[in-house]
Structures are given as structure tokens and as C-alpha cells.
């Protein structure tokens, strides 16, 4: 379910991301509540196919949360919302799929081989595609109005500061000693071009260190996050990101 060249995700990821977003979206005062999200009294059950599916579902949901105000404004300005054919219970799906649509520069989504299609995802996707020109225009107007080079401008200040702090923290990784030893994990990483150093103070880009207190934990520079998660060591659950 890897997102390849921003071609979109399988339907199950959108469903799970919408369920997560439904539980975490910002509730606004009634006088500011122009977009309705339906009943939020019960936490929906979320079933993931695998660890990667879980990760990208949460990533999509939290990206939608970061830009909730902007996405709602785009829906309203484009007249894509309110939509009487899509009930309030599917508004979360509409928002997360809109985030992904603009992230793909409003290009059509790829259907993955062997993918199990979900009717409501197809319905919402088709609906957004019918409004694609108006949605893109609404985003462009919003960026021009605020002189914003990218949508990063619209990230709330508090979230932006949290992301800056998080991006500077080293990555901690557990060694799954049921599957691989410390020595073999180090050897495998060195074969992939990484260099073992004594501590985080010695970090360069392609480096790592063994935690000084927990010898089944490795520490990496935060800049390596995406490259690490694509290694077979993570795919095989030999290493687990903390």
C-alpha cells in the first residue's frame, strides 16, 4: 500500500483515515460550524491490514487535521459543500480524500492491482473529481489571498512548532531480538551504507548509534526516517520504530 509518486492509496486506507479523523477533528463553536461531521459519540473500530497500512492511515488523518480549516474553506468556496448526496457521516472521508487530492496536485487517483474497492470511497472520489476544477481554483484563490507559496503557510502556529521540535529529535528503534541480534542488525545496516558511531553527538546523515542505556535500542538522525522505513529490516519487523 505504499504511496508511489503520489498516486493515492487503496480504498481501505481512506476509510481508516476517515475513521481516525472523525475522532480527532477540531470541534468548532456552533456559530462557526459551517461543515458538519455527523455523530462522534462512539469511537469506530479501525482494522488495519498491516503495519504500513496503519502508519499511512494515521499520517493521512493527521495531515487532514493540520489543514482542517483550509480544507473546509476549499469545500465551501468551491460549492462542493454542502453536498446533499453525501451524508454528514461521510464528511470526514470527504475531507481526508480532499487533502490527498490536493497533495497529488489534483491528478486522478491510481487504482492498485488486486485492490478491494469500497463503494463509498469510489462515490466520494467521483464526487470530488466532478468538482476538481472548482476545488483547485478555490485553493489557488486562498493562496493568492494570503500570499502563500504552499499550503504549509496554513499550518496552525502551535502545530508548526510541535513539528519543528519533533523533526529535530533522534529516532529510536527497537531491535526485535526474537528475529535478529544486535550484532546482525548492526552488520546489516553497515552493509546498507550506514556508519555506526559512538553517540548522537557524532551523527552525520548516514549514521546510527547504540543507545548507551538500552542495548536493544538503536538511535538514528531524524533525517533518515523515510529511508529507514523502506528497509527490509522494518518490513520484516526486525527493527521497530519507537
From TrEMBL:
Listed Gene3D superfamilies: Sun protein, domain 3
GO MF, one example: methyltransferase activity
GO biological process, one term: methylation
Domain (NOL1/NOP2/NSUN 5/7 ferredoxin-like) ranges: 172-242
Keyword annotations from UniProtKB, A to Z: Methyltransferase, Transferase
Matches recorded under Pfam families: NSUN5_fdxn-like
Protein name listed in UniProt: NSUN7 methyltransferase
The encoding gene: Nsun7
